[in-house]
Amino acid sequence: MLLSSRERRELAARGHHLKTSVTLPTEVVADHVRQVRNAFAGGDLVKIRIRGEDRAACERAAAEVAARVPCEIVQRVGRVVLLYQPKKDSERP
Q1: pTM to 2 decimal places
Q2: With the C-alpha atoms ordered 88, 69, 73, 81, is the resulting torsion angle positive or negative?
């Protein structure tokens, strides 16, 4: 699922007000994938925080979460990542 730049901007604007719903360590992301999947039950956007000091480790952890859930990374600002997973019964924004 590839998002256009327009869709990314719209989703980022919608997700701006969201609070972080899941905090993950960079080391054992696989153990927390279920938490992220459960967070998507409340909507199509989820904001997560990745604990870690290394920027590259945070990027790898975000990519691993996106691949395992599966979902799309809309935006990453520092250690906060906005994820998008379209609802089964709705279309993309």
Answers
A1: 0.89
A2: positive
